[in-house]
Amino acid sequence: MSVDKIKKLEKLVASAVEGLNALQTENIRLEQRVQELKKEKETALKENAKDKDSLEKLKQLEVSHRKLEKDRSEVRLKVQNVLQKIEKMDFV
User: Fold this and answer.
1) pLDDT for 38-56, tens place per residue?
2) Percent of the residues in the chain that have a pLDDT greater than 70, as a whole number
3) Integer Cα distance of 23 and 27 in angstroms
4) For residue 87, what pLDDT band results from cuts at 50, 70 and 90?
């Protein structure tokens, strides 16, 4: 093999090694980014679950509030009726 061919082959091999090193570096960077994204996803899923739980509690509170408002109205009417009956009574 001639010296020129060997030098060309060396350059090709060196270029291939550089390309391989660059790809390995990029692969490591991408693997780290994947891990970061997995952690972000985990955090987002936890926050989402927490938000869903909070929303469910809020809905329950709204239902409870409506029931209490209804009960309050009923009790108010009963108290008013009792007061009217008391006013009509003659205690003399």
Assistant:
1) 999 999 999 999 999 999 9
2) 98
3) 6
4) confident
Find how far residue 7's CA is from the centre of its chain. Answer: 58
Reported as type and span, the H/E element at residue 2 is: none
Four-point Cα dihedral 57, 62, 68, 73, nearest 10: 180
Task: Pick 68 or 90 by higher pLDDT.
Answer: 68
In 65-86, which positions are buried (b, 16+ CB within 10 angstroms) versus exposed (e)? eeeeeeeeeeeeeeeeeeeeee
Pinpoint the alpha helices (H) of 1-92: 3-88
Helix, strand or coil for residue 76? helix
CA distance 88 to 84: 6
